[in-house]
Task: structure prediction
Amino acid sequence: MREKRQSVQVKGKTNKKVFWTSFISGIMLLAVLLVSIGLSGVAYAVPLAGVGDFYVEFDKLEGTGYTFYPKMGETSSEASAPEGTNLIDKLTITNLKLYKDFKVGDQWIRVKITASKPVQITGLQQDASLIQANAQFSDLVLKENYSNDWTKQFKQTSSKITLGSAKLKTHYLFQKTINMNGMKLTVEKIDKK
Result:
């Protein structure tokens, strides 16, 4: 007896009403946050997490009190992926661009935040899986430690860090305070393949 094989294709379908409601709510929440930053010039304790991979680009970063250590962290596509945590006590960023791309049906939409003036930040924590930059460190220390916890076996510290022409694939971002004068938020269609 010959068995007849059938293949069943199940296509996922996005509920456009739920998607657009969530998307617009998120944009409105972000806009309220950014307007409050624009009115006061300073924001306190600003976490950007749970929005998946987003990119941070800038011309120059100058910071003091730098620490790096490896970890496993959550991304938009994986529950646990290798990342590195960067901590900087105090820093200034020139020509900051932060953006996230969303696929909506057959089109791509980019939400982008830029700052035309230098951005001052205190208490930065950033988890990234990619950092591309021209880097300079002062008093750089790379140190291994004996531990059963692999995330505590390696640590990098420096008293001063300078990054130029940087692009960072980021999964979590927190700043204790941020002063973002000249901020601009845009939502636009992009040509992405």
Observations:
- The chain has two domains: 13-44, 45-190.
- The mean pLDDT is 84.
- The helical segments are 16-40.
- The longest strand covers residues 42-73.
